[in-house]
Amino acid sequence: MIFIVVKMTVKPERTEDWLALVDDFTQATRNEPGNLFFEWSKSVDNPHQFVLVEGFASREAGDAHVNSAHFKEAMETMADAIATTPQIISTEAPGNGWSAMAELTPRHV
């Protein structure tokens, strides 16, 4: 699995509409055959920072994503809304998605 985390700091005036701005890109990516997950979160420390967690089934699926028309279009759209160059971690990880955390389970009283 290709595992990617991207931190995107957006211009303050684009914070409120960021998720709407990237919605077409998000939906198109989630519909890619090799996409395992594509999830946005908002930082609790920086009100203008969003964190994207992505998973792709293989290097080929990740390459297809980066070479897709919707990816290229999204890069153009997002360039006008970001405040800084995004930070990224991209690595190959074992497995094919999320696993249950062994160290913590719900307590049932």
From TrEMBL:
PROSITE patterns for the chain: ABM
InterPro entries reported in the protein's UniProt record: ABM_dom (IPR007138), AI-2_Isomerase_LsrG (IPR050744), Dimeric_a/b-barrel (IPR011008)
All copies of domain ABM, residue ranges: 2-93
Transmembrane helix found in the keyword field: no
UniProt entry keywords in alphabetical sequence: Monooxygenase, Oxidoreductase
Listed GO MF terms: monooxygenase activity
Signal peptide: none
Family matches, as Pfam families: ABM (PF03992)
Enzyme category, top tier: oxidoreductase
EC number: 1.-.-.-
Keyword Translocase recorded: no
Record protein name field: Quinol monooxygenase
